[in-house]
Design a protein that fits this description.
230 residues; mainly alpha; 2 domains; two-stranded parallel ribbon; 76% helix
Length: 230
């Protein structure tokens, strides 16, 4: 992804989280509308910057759908499902890679950092990286399920109440948003940091610091990350 496309994607992701939380905290559909527009921009940013025809065709269609949802008073409903779909999709990518002939996702990263291939990794690195891939799939799967359950019992306008059903226990939309749009990222970041600290002890001398590890990841280059999920 070109630098401009990446910067726009990140900016729109931050804007989406902010507007989605404001929509839940204030119950103002104008913020929900803004969140939907930011979501569309985030999803299409790379294609628009690269002048892909599919992105420019999808843009007016997506904007029209956002406006229809806002005009019908349902702009906030899709926001309940975005965190579920996003986390579940990433969990599926990790889980699916466990059966890939190219190796598990984290195994491929470790091999690339070592300038080797998954087939030639040391047995302990191969086993650990594969287990870590499975752990990420499990953690993200549980997080996605938690997002879904909380979206169902949120009030007002949660998934169950939108169907005319009453949940036995409820939370406010603001509480749901704090978890789905903010705490989600803290939990993922916390797991990443704890795992990295354990990995440093498990494989002493392999990483000098967290900053050095991030530089190694960035050093893999855009070609690696572009082809990573293909």
């Amino acid at each position: 992804m070109p630098a401009m496309g990446l910067a726009l994607t990140v900016a729109m992701a931050v804007a989406y989280a902010a507007f989605a939380h404001l929509a839940s905290a204030t119950h103002d559909d104008r913020y929900a509308y803004a969140a939907l527009l930011a979501l569309v921009a985030m999803m299409l940013a790379a294609g628009l910057v690269a002048r892909r025809a599919w992105a420019w065709v999808a843009l007016p269609l997506a904007l029209g759908a956002c406006h229809l949802l806002y005009a019908s008073g349902h702009a906030g409903l899709p926001l309940l499902l975005v965190p579920v779909a996003f986390v579940a999709a990433i969990a599926w990518l990790f889980a699916r890679s466990l059966w890939s002939p190219h190796g598990a996702l984290i195994t491929r990263i470790v091999a690339a950092l070592d300038g080797s291939t998954p087939a030639t990794l040391a047995p302990d690195l191969l086993a650990y990286s594969r287990g870590l891939t499975a752990a990420w799939a499990l953690v993200l799967g549980v997080l996605g399920l938690a997002n879904l359950v909380l979206a169902m019992v949120a009030e007002p306008g949660g998934l169950l109440s939108s169907l005319g059903l009453r949940a036995p226990l409820t939370i406010t939309r603001e509480q749901w948003s704090l978890f789905a749009n903010i705490l989600n990222y803290g939990l993922v970041g916390g797991f990443f940091l704890v795992e990295f600290a354990y990995r440093k002890r498990r494989f002493p001398g392999r990483y000098s610091s967290f900053a050095a590890f991030l530089r190694q990841m960035a050093g893999l280059g855009p070609a690696f990350w572009r082809d990573f999920l293909r």
